[in-house]
Specification:
68% of the residues lie in helices and 0% in strands. It is built from six helices and no strands. α4 packs antiparallel against α5. The longest helix has 27 residues, at 12-38.
């Protein structure tokens, strides 16, 4: 199990780039989930048709996943949650006819967070992460 959380060995330059990506995307994801974590089981409203439990998981995934991403902590698990949440969010917007980019609603943020989570899941958080500190690095 430890191997699952042990990041790949990256160069310092690559790890610095991953750190910048993780910090910006993690803070943005936390901001995106802040309102949802305030009312985790009802943020979509009573007529949404989405069970309260799934709303709670999405709120935790966005806010907690953003925090984990910024810290580089338990990154594979956190990114799996973000992938599921953002994949569903993108599907929800696309099936509702929302454009890629537009106001007031679009699927661009969900798509972008999905791709960032996928990239970090596949590459690992880099040297400058709590995962590297706690679990070491794979060569």
């Amino acid at each position: 199990m430890k191997r699952f959380f042990t990041p790949e060995l990256h160069s310092s330059r690559a790890s610095l780039g991953l750190l910048a990506l993780r910090l910006l995307a993690g803070i943005a994801l936390m901001h995106h989930g802040w309102g949802k974590i305030q009312h985790p089981f009802g943020w979509m409203g009573p007529d949404s048709g989405t069970p309260a439990f799934l709303q709670g998981l999405a709120a935790l995934s966005e806010f907690g996943g953003g925090l984990a991403l910024a810290l580089g902590l338990l990154t594979p698990l956190a990114m799996l949650g973000v992938l599921c949440t953002m994949g569903y969010a993108a599907f929800f917007h696309i099936s509702g006819g929302d454009p890629f980019v537009g106001r007031p609603r679009s699927w661009e943020p969900a798509g972008l967070f999905f791709v960032i989570a996928l990239c970090v899941l596949l590459t690992g958080p880099g040297r400058f992460s709590l995962d590297a500190l706690l679990f070491g690095r794979r060569r």
